[in-house]
Amino acid sequence: MATVELKNIGKVYEGGVRAVDNANITVNDREFVVLVGPSGCGKTTTLRMVAGLEDITEGELYIDGKMVNDVPPKDRDIAMVFQNYALYPHMTVYDNMAFGLKIRKYPKAEIQQRVKEAAQILDIEELLERKPKALSGGQRQRVAVGRAIVRKPKVFLFDEPLSNLDAKLRVQMRAEISALHTRLQATMIYVTHDQVEAMTMADKIVVMKNGVIQQIGSPLELYNHPANRFVAGFIGSPPMNFLTCAIKEEGGKLIADEGESRIEITGRYVNVMKSYVGKEVVFGVRPEDLIYSEKGGEGIHTHVDVIEPLGAEIHVYVSTKKHQMIARVQPTVQFKVGDEAVFTAILDRVIFFDLETEQAIQA
Fold first, then answer.
1. By the number of CB atoms within 10 A of the CB, which of 117, 182, 197, 345 ranks highest?
2. Contact 49, 11 (CB under 8 A)
3. Residues 167-201: tens digit of each pLDDT
4. Close Cβ partners of 235 (under 8 Å, ≥ 6 residues apart)
C-alpha cells in the first residue's frame, strides 16, 4: 500500500471560484481517512484531485513518495468507488469486475483468480453471472467495491458510496467496509457528508468547510476537543448545543449569564474565563452532558417543545427565550410537551468558544 500526501493543495475553477484552499493532509500507509463536511465544502473535489480526475491548481500531491500532479489517473495505481456505482449494465457481475484487468491485458487465469478472491471476500460469488439490473442496491455496491479490490491498488478512494442505500443497509455496509479495510490492510480515503459514517469508520477525520480544512484528528479527539464551533456542531449526533452567555464575576464567583439562566463556572475554565469578564462567549454543551434536575433550582431553565422516544433513550427538544437545545435523557424520565424542565451541565465536559472568532477557548 502507500502513503498519500497533500501539500498546500488548492483548486480554483474558472471565474476565480476557489473550491479547495491550502489543503495539507497526510494519509499514512494502511490508514482509513475520512473527509467529511457539508455539501459544497470541497471534499469530493479533493478526492478527485487525488484520483487525477481534477487538475491541481496549486500545491503538490505525492503517492508513495512520488509527486503525481501530472500523472494520468490510470498510472496512479488507485481505485475509486463512486456514489452511483458506475457499473456497465450490459455486462455480468464477473465482467464488470474483470473489465479493468482485461483492459490492462492481465492473463485470463489471473483475472479469474482475482475476481474469485474478491467475490469470496464480499460474499457475492453466487451473483457473478447476473447483470446489474438484477441486483439490489447493496449488491451493486459490493460489485463496485469488488471491481476496486481486483485491481489491488496502492490506494482505495470512496466517494459517498453509501448515500444511495437505505438506512439499515448503510449501517450494514459501514461495518463491511470497515472489516474490508482491516482484512486488506489497505490505504483508504473516504468522502461523506454523514458524520456518523466518519465517526464509526475512520482512523482519522478531516473536517472541511468552504474549501478549508477546519481540523484533522481521530474521531474521539474531534468529538472531545473540537477546534472551533463548526467542528463542535458538525461532529456528534444530536449536535452540540450552543448558548450565548455573558461572563460576570459576582461575589468571587464566575457566572455564565444566559439571560433566564445563570451557570456558575467551576473547574478547568475558572482561570482562563476571568479574562472574559464583561464579554459574551458561546457556551457549548453536548446533549448527553445535560442532566435533568428533578428538583429544579439552579441550572438551565427550559420549556419542553418536542419529545422523541428512541427506546434506549429520549431526545428532548427544549428552549429558553433565546436558545433551542436538545437533551438526551433516560426513558425513565417522564416529560410532557409544555413542561418546564431544569438541566444542569456537566462542567468538566462543556466547551467555551470565542464569540467573534468561534475558536474553542483553551482551558
1. 197
2. yes
3. 888 888 899 899 989 988 899 999 999 999 999 99
4. 195, 198, 199, 205, 207, 219, 222, 223, 226
The C-alpha cell at 327 is 437533551
The answer to whether the CB of 244 falls within 8 A of the CB of 323 is yes
Bridge partners of 26? 5
CA distances from residue 228 to 7, 120, 197, 353 in whole angstroms, order as listed: 23, 44, 21, 7
* DSSP-derived pairing of the beta strands 204-209 and 32-36: parallel
Decide if pLDDT at 70 tops 90.
yes
- Alpha carbons 294 and 26: distance in angstroms, whole number: 49
Side-by-side strand order, sheet with 66-67: 18-27, 4-12, 58-63, 66-67
Task: Tell me phi and psi for residue 136, to 5 degrees.
Answer: -75, 170
Q: Residue holding cell 452532558?
A: 289
Count of helices and strands (H, E) across the chain: 9, 20
- The DSSP output letter for 228 is B
Which run of H or of E encompasses 132? Answer: none
Question: Rg of the chain's alpha carbons, rounded to an integer?
Answer: 25
Give the residue-averaged pLDDT of 272-292: 95
Are 302 and 274 spatial neighbours (Cβ–Cβ below 8 Å)? no
Strand, coil or helix: 14: coil
Q: Which residues pair with 61 in a beta bridge?
A: 6
DSSP conformation letters of 167-203:
HHHHHHHHHHHHHHHHHHT-EEEEEES-HHHHHHH-S
